[in-house]
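pinned: reference chain
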Amino acid sequence: MDFNKWFCDKRTGKENINTHPDPRTEYQRDFDRIIFSSAFRRLQNKTQVFPLPGSVFVHNRLTHSLEVASVGRSLGSLVGNYLIDTYKSDIDEKVQNNFRYSLYNVIASAALCHDIGNPAFGHSGEDAIANFFIRNKGNLESKFSPEQWQDFLNFEGNANAIRVLTHQQPGKSEGGLKLTYTTLASIAKYPCESQAIDKTKDKSKKRLNRKKFGFFTSEKRTFLDIAANTGMKQEIGEFISFKRHPFVWLVEAADDICYSIIDLEDGHRLGIIDSETYSKYMLDLIDNLQVDSITNVRSQLGKLKDRNDRASYLRAKAINSLTISAVNQFKDNCEFFLDGSQNKSLFNLIKDNCPVINEIEGFSQDHIYNHRSVVEIENAGYNVMYELLQHFIPPILLEPDNRSSSEKKALKLLPNQFLYENSEAYFRVLGVLDYVSGMTDNYATDLYRKIKGIDIGMTI
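pinned: its structure tokens
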């Protein structure tokens, strides 16, 4: 394990030289760039689980990402100090400073943008994109190379995140957001190309780093450069795949911790789960993990009378317990995480010794993820995304002279930065996917209603 290769402040694109002193580290600059990006702001109007809020506030992709970044910062700080204390003699002095003072910024930055490639309507949107190509295989497959076709069949928000963050759109900056290679490596949960996906049906035997894929063919060269500069270990095989970068485990754990608890809290706020049931799950979890004194937690809870305040207190204690437990699991299995041989996430290792997590997941599956309002938005979102692709992709694949008047009008709706008219079919379709996957739930729904004639009239 070469700790000294894991940090790399090289950026995508040609970085302009800053002639003015900057008090921020390179990884703090990453955090700020993400916060101020339009792609990050659009997460505000993308569904997390429940339909976007009416009178009751629930989480969206943006608030979820901010909370994941908060947990990620804690994990990065605790693990960074542990690695320095444990492997100090193996780490150069400059890199020691990165572990102690920058790792938490790397994890927080990666956590901020871990969902930035997710389309509108979440997993339902992903399914719609993939299924569009599956259902139109006969008409489309021959237009693409095998690796390009697999990109479309397995469309994935994680791979799309790398594209969103690094791709240069026409008329825009080279290198996308120009993030450091270390931050980009830290979001690559599945560091392989689409053809390298592990298709093993037995989930217990499926390789975690190849469960899905992490970069499109269009970003292969960029990803190879990222991997080469951050010490990622390439696997032997017919297709390109790597072991996970060690920092990925912490970003993934922060995400797993947040959604496992926050989705339950949202269910409580909406009245799907009653206070007694919610409190029992949270108290049992805290008691199982044995990080906080359950006696002290119960005592403090007894002083709180407001329903939502009690729920917030238990959520905070549960997340703290899971965070400390994740750090302990990292320490106990450190070598396996660092060399990439671990095949279980930090959260699943915690779950092995905490049966109440399975109970919470079972309840969430039955009563939250399959709640009628959630299923309705998933069905609606799938249809909206599918129909938008149907509107744009067939015309974009035709040569301009072969398009009908209506097909030409359809493409007038595509902004210029998403038009790749003089490129091969693969890039023309990617332009459409860039546009559609970047839409917010509201924008996608609004455009769908207009092109279907449900809403007719001028909006400016």
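why pinned: The mean pLDDT is 92. Residues 61-87 form the longest helix (27 residues).
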